[in-house]
Amino acid sequence: MHExxxxxxxxxxxxxxxxxxxxxxxxxxxxxVGAMTGILPYYLEKYFPEASKGxxxxxxxxxxxxxxxxxxxxxxGTVYEPEKxxxxxxxxxxxxxxxxxxxxxxxxDQIELEEVPQETGKDL
Length: 124
Ligand SMILES: [Zn+2]
Fold this sequence. Notes:
By secondary structure, the protein is α+β, with helices and mostly antiparallel strands. It has helices spanning 3-20, 41-52; strands spanning 26-34, 61-67, 70-73, 79-80, 98-102, 106-113.
């Protein structure tokens, strides 16, 4: 089960990024998870509250984008999702020789910070 360590790492990355942006709390963090990583988004969401507890990411919205496995055919260049084609073959030429294009991602994509009220310095 790698989900707990994965989400802890993502939370740390997000908090570091938030600090670099001047601090404040996180409103949301977006992560991309490739289907080949074996990481299940369900568990990332499940462990997120615990992983973010006591950090600026506590209470933030976790947005997970699942990236499907795509392969580009080494014979004709067609990009396809092998899981959706018969025999995992290229739908155009039938070749099984493919190069993985996407599906290995495991990354913090984006963070959104809560709006920090600006000091105007004006007395009423
Ligand atoms: Zn092909």
